[in-house]
Amino acid sequence: RPITTYNIRFDEEAYDESVYARQIAAQIGSDHRELTLTESTFQLQLDDALASLDQPTFDAINTYFVSRAVREAGITVALAGTGGDELFGGYQSFTDLPKASRFTRAMAGLPASLNGLTGDLLDAVVNRDAGEVRPQVRWGKIKDLVAARGDLLPLYQVSYALFSRDFLHTLCLKPPSACAWGLLDNTFKNVSQSIDNKENILENISRLELGSFLGERLLPDTDAASMAVALEARVPLLDHAFVESLQKVSPDLRYEPVGRKQLLRSFVEDQIDTSVFDRPKAGFELPMEVWSKNTLAPDMEAVFQDINLLHAIGLNAEAVGRLWRAFRAGSPGLYWSRLWGLYVLLHWCRKHGVFLR
After folding, report:
1. 3-state helix/strand/coil string of 163-186
2. How many other CB atoms are there within 10 angstroms of residue 332's CB atom?
3. What whole-number distance in Å separates Cα of residue 183 and Cα of residue 196?
4. How many whole angstroms from its chain centre is CA 107?
5. What pLDDT is stored for residue 82 in this prediction?
């Protein structure tokens, strides 16, 4: 019988991929279902979604809602495409990090003081129009990128960090504990060794994505969010035999051209018109940028103004307030994830009574 495929659609057109899902479903002949997630439904079910989290994370919320919708449709086991980007070079990191590595390695020979001055100068030029809070995306963290001095692991950590090191020190009441680029010393050493002596930088990035983003975030989040609604999510692309077989494929064939996942496309090109994939990559993202400024704003603001709660987990209330105001004002480089990450952390700590002494 035909397999059943599900897609979450949104009223917000900029986030809705329903038209592409329909095209692929038509080509593979699936029994396709569309499930609408509205802003009001999201708000009503948000407490349940946050309660499903075993640990504070901002990335599980989308998985919870798609899992809940599929489970309510009567499905108990579902397949997910998790791992495709990590294994075949689909993320922007596969494009950006090699460039950043070449650029910052060229300055690595400078004395530390001159290297720091270069970072300050580039930051002043790139972010000269910054508002109350400087951008907290990759171009806003250029000082940190320069300070990485071409080392891939620090560059990777900087690219995924929610905040620049400067703003993180402002955000925390006490300086963050000593660690290497957001990792405990032993972890930093072990991860460095896992990518050491690997000649191809794309292969190194894949290892980092598999071990860090996938292993530390996506898989735990998927497990917690799906099991919270009694849905078993299976990830066939991460079958160990399949992953091991890919290690025998040359990096050029596996990753090039970067960002297109061409090898993965070639597996299905006799069944699907691959022109449906020829569009800018988009992650599975809820319209959080919009909803955080609309129906979610009052609750988020109330949490951000709870000075006792902020201080109890070591956050600077003034810095949190500036970040929230800048986000509401539409300052460049302040995406919803920065505020949502703080909101989930605060919500989780309050719910479970977790505070710093």
Report:
1. CCHHHHHHHECCCCCCCECCECHH
2. 15
3. 17
4. 28
5. 94
* Angle CA 216–223–341, to nearest 5: 55
Contact 3, 31 (CB under 8 A): yes
Closest by alpha carbon to 307, among 298, 297, 296, 318? 318
Asked whether 191 and 211 are in contact (CB, 8 A), the reply is: yes
**The token pair that represents 110 in the structure block:** 């400078």
What are the C-alpha distances in Å from 198 to residues 152, 201, 207, 278?
11, 7, 10, 31
Count of Cβ atoms closer than 10 Å to residue 242 Cβ: 12
Alpha-carbon gap, residue 316 to 215, rounded angstroms? 31
CB 56 within 8 A of CB 345: yes
Query: 4 pairs with which residues across the strands?
Result: 31
Contact 22, 32 (CB under 8 A): yes
Cα angle 247, 248, 254; round to 5: 70
Q: Which amino acid is at 265?
A: R
pLDDT tens, position by position, 34-49? 999 999 999 999 999 9
User: CA 293, CA 130: separation in Å to the nearest integer?
Assistant: 20
Strand partners, 172: 315
CB 323 within 8 A of CB 286: no
Which of 4-8, 131-135, 194-198 is predicted with the least confidence, judged by mean pLDDT?
A: 194-198
Closest of 165, 180, 143, 152 to residue 96, by C-alpha: 152
Count other C-beta atoms under 10 Å from residue 280's C-beta: 5
Give the CA angle between residues 347, 353, 355 to the nearest 5°. 90
Q: 179-215, pLDDT tens digit by residue?
A: 779 898 899 999 999 887 667 999 999 999 999 999 9
